[in-house]
Amino acid sequence: MGQSTSSCSVAPSSTAATTTTSAASTKCQLHPSPPPATAPRKKRKPSHLPPATAAAADHTLSLPDECLATVFSKLGCHDRNSCSLVSKRWSSVDSASRHRLVLLSPAEISPSLPSLLSRFTSLTVLSLKCSRKSPSIDNDSFAQISRFLNSLQKIKLKGCTHISDDGLVAFSANRPSKLSKVSFASCGFGAKGINSMLTNCSIKDLTLKRLRKLDTRTSHLEYPDSSVGAGKLLVRLCVKDLHNAGVFTPLLSSCSKSLKTLIVCRSSGNWDGVLEESFGGGGGITSVMEIQFESVQLGDQGLTSISTSCPDLQALYLSRTTDCTDDGLSAIAGKCKKLRKLHIDAWTRFGIRTIGDDGVLSIAQKSSHLQEIVLMGVPISVQTLNALASNCRSLERMALCNTDTLGDAELAFVAAKFLPLKKLCIKNCPVSELGIAAVGAGCPNLVKLKVKRCRGISAASIGRLKLRRRLLVVSVDEDTPMAFDSGAEEEERQRGAERRRGRDGNPNHHGLLPGNASGTTANAICTSMSALFLKSKFENALHLGRGRRGERRHDSSISNDDIIFQ
């Protein structure tokens, strides 16, 4: 073997080539290659299964179309679209069982829209969306929808700026009998097209958002005098980001007997006059059961009109209304005896509090059917809490937020008196561990507690509450110090032992009291310089927190500088 190696190294070029070929042949022998093409290959055995058995290997063929449609309904959008391309049967089953479709509708899809609509003939909900920066489908394309989709029940348009009043008129001319819900947002039509939809379709639910052509005072939303029956009138009206309240007065007057829900958000105009004229012109008594007003010009005059015209009112939401006071809320309490839900956000955009404790007290004294109350920025007192506990025996959900009058004493009163309470939310209130401990000892029917931005509550108190009430669901947001806690019971016991040693006067190795410096667990990876910087900042925050602990109860707006590390 050594001689052959030597001969290969000194051989001439031809000999070297021969040696290389020989070496390559040796490699081929170690790793045999497939036989040459001339050699006969072994043929595969044919399948021993009969044709019927081979076809039965696809188990979906034995599923009825109804079962396959049920499977498709459990899939997500992309998976379902992929399944529709598997076979003709799957495509037909998907098309027949597809009831909801969200479609991007730029102008480029107009040629293919008829074939797309003819494929999904069972649609009940159709949503067309387009960017306002690009042209959308036009009137002719939109009018075809009502011809192809006879089962359509809800249609939603967003950003379709190239659909005008003529497009809505052509769409409604086909009179889709099952269409009952309509939502228009950021589109290019006005009152003429919407009135045609109200006339020719049985619209029960109408939502209008950011329709700039409705801001003009030359036209109004209204029904014709005698062409629409009582069964085709509106039941729900939602208005958002519009700037002409007077355009809705004739519409509200026409459907005052059928309207159940009225929602108005961020829409300018004199809504006091609209409510007084529309509800008063409809005969005085309406069937409205839910009213929501958010960031609108509404005062006691509007609340008085609601109280006299809506005796069946069950839900009232007032958020940042400009001129509502305790007098208007007292008028609601005096005549709306069926009130079940009350949401009040008393702060306006200028930081002025409009509704106080007296208005809530009148509600508590006269609304015995109240089941849910949410108060934000309302300075509630123990007297009002006592009235709620005594008169509202069905109160199950309560949220008290952004008020400096809710402390440990008030929270202990809630825990002792509100026995039917099931859900409680405390947000941005000066409560501490004593209040949380009182909640754990009281409220026997409580199933969920939500705590947000209450910096006087420590992680240990939440841990003890969870140990005491294991079935209670406690929700804590990231703005509170206990969000750094890992939640382990062993760590909670260790922190409790450190606090007890701190009360005995034993300082830790940093020179800080253990109960304050190591009350929460946070893991950080930093350099030595960063560690010294963080240590100095935390020490300053600790001393500032001690000095401001007595002042924090009297400050309604708690800032990040007031955080006490426990």
UniProtKB/TrEMBL annotation:
Gene3D superfamilies: 1.20.1280.50, Ribonuclease Inhibitor (3.80.10.10). GO terms for biological process: SCF-dependent proteasomal ubiquitin-dependent protein catabolic process. Residues 1-55, 483-517, 545-566 are annotated as: Disordered. Pfam families: DUF7885, F-box. Residues 492-507 have a biased composition (Basic and acidic residues). Residues 1-26 have a biased composition (Low complexity). It comes from the Eukaryota. PANTHER family: F-BOX DOMAIN-CONTAINING PROTEIN (PTHR13318:SF131), PARTNER OF PAIRED, ISOFORM B-RELATED (PTHR13318). CDD domains: F-box_AtTIR1-like. This is F-box domain-containing protein. Residues 63-103 form the F-box domain. One of its GO terms (cellular component) is SCF ubiquitin ligase complex.
